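Help!! Second protein's tokens look totally different from the first
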Amino acid sequence: MSKVAKLSDPSGRGKVAGYDVTFPTMQHRYTQEEIDAVVKVMTPNDDGEMPGQTQGKYLEQFEKDFAAFVGSKYAFGVNNCTNALKLAAIFCHIKPGDEVIIPGYTYCASAIPFGDLGAKIVWADINPYTWTIDPDDFERKITPKTKAVVCVHLLGIPCDMKKIMPIARKHGLYVVEDCAQAMDCTIDGQHVGTFGDFGCFSFHSAKTMTTLGEGGMFICQDDQIAHNVPGIRHNGLCAYQGERERYWVPAMSCVDEFLEDRWPQNFCLGEAQCALGSVQLKSVYSNNEILRAQDARIRAALADLPEISFPGIVEGGRYVVHQYVMHYDGSAYGKNRNDLLDLLTGKYRVRAIVQYYPLYRFPLFQKKGMGAYDCPVLDKWWDDSFSFPWWCGVDDPEGTNEKIDLMCERLRAAVLELRG
């Protein structure tokens, strides 16, 4: 087996010596109210009894709060978005040989749960305007074996669900929305995740809201699926049905199947994480408004640089700016993204990074026989994309260190230098 280099920080986040601006490990700091919510779960009740640490009242409240926030009939807390997507794959009844269409431009977790259940992944191209899945390319790649499509609202950019849904319904396909980076992202006021059959959300520490580093939410509208989710999520655990003469006979709880073709899993989310999640929901909108204001400042500052472009947004869409990806076109001067980042990171000390490598280029998917692709837009576009350091409140609270202005000034200097 080949050796793989061990990286302490493969994401590019964290402070790095020699740079004036780097990626933080979290989008924003915890507030005192959020810290207090977690401590409360760890504190004995007035009668001295310790509250339960899982599957309790905080989970119930968080699911209720989240469903109300996104406008979903049902919401189920899980330990991460990957397993929310795994639940979606389970309820799509994915079997070996089924095809699932997934954009080539996304994080690997959008595809792994489907590949793990035996699906053949068919890579969809991106729309050159929005950088999300191209509805026309999605339709072109549907075959009699296609079972589902995964619509990834990457970077907080909404997919064109108004075009995608009629196509999917026409062909009888499941629609899974990967909303890992899209809390508070809407189209005509409707929250992403509620257009398709299933919506999957992430509360990883790099997201706009987080539940102590990991966490996720699975949403759906179907009553029968909602009935089955808790058992699939929690090892098939359930109550014995009917009245019992003795509460301990035959045992305290039962373990049963909830789908005939699937074993149950363990995707549970802890109570402290749920308590934190309910509080964090209160600030999602205001935090996203900060991110949107930062985006507006950068676009205005760089508007006169034709080499730099930004994503477009579908009509009626709310862009919540999860990561700050831009595109550089230096072809008129014989330059490319690597030339730009050599200057920006080396001479100008801004730790820009490159994110979301097309999945078909990764060894994992190539080794699994999924390296074939037909994505000409993504294949041409990606090699000149890059990301600014990004978090909620890039400038210091006191306003003493204008990092947005600094990054824009230095990117401008690098672009002009490359015109040479």
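Here's the second one for comparison:
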Amino acid sequence: MKRDFLAVTDFSKEEIYETFRIAKQLKADVKAGKEHHYFANETMSMVFAKPSLRTRVSFETGMVQFGGHALYLGPNDISIGKRESVKDISQVISRYNNWIMARLFKHEHMLEMAKYATVPVINGLTDYNHPCQIMADMLTIYEHHGKVEGQKVVFIGDGNNVCNSFLNFASVIPYHFVLAAPEGYDPDPETLAKAQAAGLSKIEVVRDPIEAAKNADVLYTDVWTSMGQEAERQKRLDDFDGFQINAGLLSHAKSDALVMHCLPAHYGEEITEDVLDGPNSVVFDEAENRMHAQKAVMVMLAKSGGADIKI
């Protein structure tokens, strides 16, 4: 029975913690030079409608470490949903490969791909959410603060796909999530409502970043202008004036607060370079953990499908 990872809510609380455990073990084993060829001779098609550094390198390297091989299919190779239907692409790849990882614009395309694929599909990002990023983020918080439950995570910026995934996580594991965003940049209303209705986490949407940052365990940001929003760049720069993570804003958080950013960073816009490179920053731990968290997700999906993997 194949299983997909399209949103954080595809995993239960227990499965998320098990994913963290596996990720930490895999990370330690990589550093110790220990190999795990759980997917020897298996192949993964990596379907990219959006380019990426971390998603491509982390999945491709992770697959090699598992003894398999990953194939990069870039935006010009497939033109998903244009040159050929998502349904047909999904079925064809399933005949060739053991895994599909897709990084797409439209979330509907991700859902359609998973519907017709006969192999596991992993969501490497859509305009709606970014579940692999949040698994890496929460793994990083777990490593540095020893817990995720009860942590105050303050997202400064746009209520975008990463923000939606933080809300999805809040539906499964209790923590305190605050979005500080200007008017007009709130997260998906249905996702926000579902997270609040779950009744597990304290969730706030506020307009004052300084008030939001007070006693924060984590300050998190993302670019103000994402791929596909270039025409809005100047308006966004104006609207987000005052929402930068800098030394002044960081001073309102806890002294051991973590500074996080999913990258790429636009220095001088959403974050200053001195803060991203400063002692509170775990940005590159976070980036590294993309690979370890994603490998752990693959192990979880394979185990759900009946694979006898012990780790």
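Reply: Different proteins will give different token patterns, so don't panic. The chain has two domains: 8-130+290-304, 133-286.
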